[in-house]
Design goal:
Layout lengths: L7 H10 L16 H10 L17 E7 L5 H12 L4 E5 L2 H13 L4 E4 L5 H12 L5 E5 H4 L9 E4 L6 H8 L9 E7 L4 H11 L5 E2 L16 E6 L9 H9 L9 E6 L4 E6 L3 H10 L9 E3 L1
Parallel strand pairs: 1-6, 1-7, 2-4, 2-5, 3-4, 5-6
Antiparallel strand pairs: 8-10, 8-11, 9-10
Helix pairs in contact: 3-4, 7-8
């Protein structure tokens, strides 16, 4: 639905204008605001509405709410991460400026974080998503629009850096964790001016919110919150006929890297990403740059 604010309505109108009068039209949306109702009334005739309740079991997702002052929001995010130490976390923000502020703050604190928002070029978006998917960065900081359609496996935690302005969007955010029978935790930071949003969530969920105190969050031992993997970016991709097997073969063959130390490989049109264990990343980089992939010398760098 938020895509309508970005010119998506015009695209829908153009496509439907080229379809026959007798047709079947199905519209899908995570939420159903007035803009979607208006679109449905224009392009559909007496449509049937099917609604799936988006509530989450307390057995799968633990939700905690923390009241904060606006000036301690960034430090609160750091406290949450230092206490729970998730292997993977999506931190939701409302604006791209807030995304960048959060990434800068976490990076300064020694926490591996990358940002995802609507202004990223496709190439940069591919890079960010590849790094998060292959576990070479711990925290993905994203706006709701940029995070639409993401399919993230085994997400340990969701942090609402700012509480969603729509209670249904909150449910959608929280549902990113605790999937496929796994458990997850969702942390929401609530400034006094956002109290009415928390009340709306409570009314929608029909259950009291679980409030906690920031002072109860103590840093856990274990050193810096750094991922186990690092990502190597290769300056060739699908258009260059590079396949995952070519990259794996170059690493485990000529480069001599054990296959167990190689993680996910993602191939895009003009670049490819491969995760390797952090401790051997520089060694793998050197050997790939000195050697060849599919018979060619290709530029490789560490992200």
């Amino acid at each position: 639905d938020r895509m309508l604010d970005m010119g998506f309505y015009d695209a829908i109108e153009d496509i439907i204008s080229k379809t026959p009068p007798r047709r079947q039209t199905l519209l899908f949306s995570a939420t159903y605001p007035v803009s979607i109702k208006q679109l449905a009334s224009k392009f559909m005739r007496a449509p049937q509405q099917v609604k799936a309740e988006a509530f989450h079991s307390d057995d799968q997702i633990e939700q905690r709410f923390y009241e904060i002052s606006p000036e301690e929001r960034m430090d609160a995010v750091t406290k949450v991460l230092a206490h729970f130490r998730p292997a993977s976390c999506v931190a939701f923000c409302f604006t791209k400026q807030q995304v960048q502020e959060t990434v800068d703050h976490l990076t300064a604190k020694g926490i591996s974080a990358v940002g995802l928002h609507g202004d990223l070029e496709q190439r940069d978006r591919d890079q960010v998503l590849a790094m998060f998917a292959n576990r070479s960065t711990s925290v993905l900081v994203a706006t709701d629009v940029a995070a639409r359609g993401l399919d993230i496996d085994s997400l340990d935690m969701v942090i609402n850096v700012e509480l969603a302005r729509d209670s249904e969007i909150h449910i959608h955010r929280v549902g990113r964790t605790g999937r496929a029978g796994e458990t997850g935790i969702a942390i929401s930071l609530v400034a006094p001016s956002e109290a009415h949003r928390a009340q709306a969530i409570e009314q929608l969920q029909k259950t009291p919110l679980n409030w906690d105190q920031l002072d109860n969050l103590k840093p856990q031992s274990g050193g810096p919150l750094l991922p186990q993997m690092s990502t190597l970016c290769i300056a060739a991709g699908r258009k260059d006929k590079v396949r995952p097997g070519d990259i794996l073969g170059a690493l485990t063959g000529e480069a001599g890297i054990p296959g167990a130390q190689v993680g996910k490989i993602a191939i895009f049109d003009f670049q490819a990403f491969v995760a390797v264990e952090r401790g051997i990343a520089k060694q793998a980089l050197q050997r790939l740059n000195d050697g060849k992939i599919k018979g060619r010398s290709l530029r490789v760098r560490i992200l």
